[in-house]
Design a protein that fits this description.
By secondary structure, the chain is of the alpha/beta class. About 50% of the residues lie in helices and about 10% in strands. It is built from 15 helices and 8 strands. The radius of gyration is 21 Å and the shape is globular. This is tyrosine--tRNA ligase. It is found in: Cytoplasm, Cytosol.
Length: about 350
């Protein structure tokens, strides 16, 4: 793969990249850049975390990167997930790894590494905590509180003292893991920018590159993001075929409207990157079957009314179920996975 091909593939992951020229330089100078992504084991996994992460990780691996996935168990405890019970958090983390294995994340060549934050921090505490303390020392409390969005909190929320640690620790993770690229969602952008500001403060030249991927909206009207407290707002990785069909049938999908249309976003960010095409089955009187090779083609038909939500939705359900079936099969047939799913539920 040429340098330009590697750059284009990595860049295609991000809705935003800070900074593109730094990414080019990194790829020129380092054969295997380190990319970092992290997640809190905090409950069920929705399709953006499951499938979009697999798509992004597979692109990074294809482009020659090493991907470190930080299983942020201590962070879930700080954020009071699973009632702060670290044993339960650990079970959820193992369950989520099983989902990524089943859906097709490329784990064969050893370029993807799952790291448990509690294990790694405890084994190298002498490196980690001085870094956290230095980041905390160099920032005022309002600056840290502006990062609270990374925990799914707002500055107006009444935060525990533990939650104030969280941004300082997440910022430290980037340097602790020697990450060249931070590949997280747009909702994590503020803490990644904090890491670049920290580089200025300590006069460090090589700043982490921020590659922020798009956040899928919820399936209902006006839902900017998926909500774990509202199961109808997202497709979950272990949803049965009937669940997927019902959720998509009820999803917000106004005719001829492309902006803020969650069904079209699912097609753009999940279906095309996964299947590279989208087939709509229709009766001959409704125009017959239609295979789309690009999202732009589909948008053009949808805008002018050539493609109706009544035909688009069943096609979307079918395409999603094709992606999720191997996950269902894995959790039905593999004893370890079956046990984990039972314990999580």
């Amino acid at each position: 793969m040429s340098l330009k091909e590697r750059f284009d593939l990595i860049r295609s992951i991000g809705e935003e990249c800070i900074q593109e020229d730094e990414l080019e330089k990194l790829l020129e100078n380092k054969p295997q850049p380190i990319c970092y992504d992290g997640f809190e084991p905090s409950g069920r996994m929705h399709i953006a975390q499951g499938v979009m992460k697999a798509i992004n990780v597979n692109k990074l691996v294809s482009a020659g990167c090493k991907v470190k996935i930080w299983i942020a168990d201590w962070f879930a405890q700080l954020n009071n997930k699973m009632g702060g019970d670290l044993k339960k958090i650990r079970v959820v983390g193992e369950y989520l790894i099983e989902i990524w294995k089943a859906v097709g994340m490329n784990l064969d060549g050893g370029q993807v590494e799952f790291l448990w934050s509690s294990d790694e921090i405890n084994s190298r505490a002498h490196e980690y905590w001085p870094l956290v303390m230095d980041i905390a020392r160099r920032n005022k409390l309002p600056r840290i509180m502006r990062c609270c969005q990374i925990m799914g909190r707002s500055e107006q929320d009444e935060l525990t003292a533990a939650q104030i640690f969280y941004p300082c620790m997440q910022c430290a993770d980037i340097f602790f893991l020697k990450a060249d690229i931070c590949q997280l969602g747009m909702d994590q952008r503020k803490v990644n920018v904090l890491a670049r500001e920290y580089c200025d403060a300590i006069k460090r030249k090589n700043k982490p590159i921020i590659l922020s991927h798009h956040m899928l909206p919820g399936l209902q009207e006006g839902q900017e993001k998926m909500s774990k407290s509202d199961p109808s707002s997202a497709i979950y990785m272990e949803d049965e075929e009937a669940d997927v069909n019902l959720k998509i049938k009820k999803a917000f999908c106004p005719p001829q409207v492309v902006e803020n249309n969650p069904c079209l976003e699912y097609i753009q960010y999940i279906i095309f990157p996964w299947h590279h095409e989208f087939t709509v089955e229709r009766k001959p009187e409704n125009g017959g079957d239609r295979k789309y090779e690009s999202f732009e083609e589909l948008v053009s038909d949808y805008k002018c009314g050539e493609l109706h939500p009544g035909d688009l939705k069943p096609a979307l359900s079918k395409a999603l179920n094709r992606i999720l079936q191997p996950v269902r099969d894995h959790f039905n047939n593999d004893p370890k996975a079956k046990d984990l799913a039972k314990r999580v539920k």
